[in-house]
Design goal:
Length: 88
């Protein structure tokens, strides 16, 4: 079925760029994205860029393993507080 959608220019540019990077037509990417969203598997709408926190020169290095151990030790309330602080 053919249809017409109005989407923001910046979103269309992002979709077009992603489709090009993946070597597929925009229509195919949109259909795949809609199917994924309908199945409850949509990609998150946020993007994390690394490093999240830049340290001072000569600062203490934190390994990924240390971060994972800290995450495992956090209870749900701590996670919710952290997420709330990060959204400010």
């Amino acid at each position: 079925m053919k249809t017409t959608l109005e989407i923001p220019d910046e979103l269309y540019r992002a979709v077009k760029a992603k489709a090009a990077l993946e070597g597929k037509p925009v229509t195919q990417l949109v259909v795949e994205s809609l199917r994924s969203a309908m199945a409850g598997k949509a990609e998150p709408v946020y993007k994390i860029e690394f490093p999240i926190i830049k340290s001072k020169p000569g600062g203490k290095k934190i390994t990924l393993a240390q971060v994972k151990r800290a995450q495992d030790a956090m209870d749900e309330e701590e996670v919710n507080r952290f997420v709330h602080l990060m959204r400010r």
